[in-house]
Amino acid sequence: MSSLENALKKAGLTDYEVKIRSSLSKYPDGLTAEELSKIARVPHAKIYSVLNGLARHALLHSDESRPKKYYPLPADALADALVKPRKTELEQIQANPRESSRVLSDDLLRTDVLIADGKKAGIPAVDPDTHEYVQES
After folding, report:
1. Which of 41, 64, 116, 117 is 20 to 30 A from 18, comparing alpha carbons?
2. Range of 114's domain?
3. Does residue 106 share a domain with residue 49?
4. Do 78 and 105 fall into the same domain?
5. Which among 1, 25, 24, 21 has a CA at the least distance from the CA of 13?
């Protein structure tokens, strides 16, 4: 797997999205959906939904020709498109630390339940009202 494919997977793209975006990077003059389906080995029945998803996330662009062609973004634009949602998420956490803390604490509480009674599993207990760690004796 190439470094581009690894980065796309880490960013949360599906296998089909990674295959299409990776294939497009090798064809800067663009490809039709049919060509992409063959080159990326994505079933024709799935190609348009995957392309539309990538377009919604601004990870490729297309023209209005018939048949429509899809083009890769330049590397810097692709990096921006991948980073922007994470940056927005982190900014929201920074802007609302109390709410973010509550969400993170709720995640910890769910984890405690899934693993086993927190005390026995060596996981600190979290007070459900204050969302703070509880010192157990």
Report:
1. 64
2. 96-134
3. no
4. no
5. 21
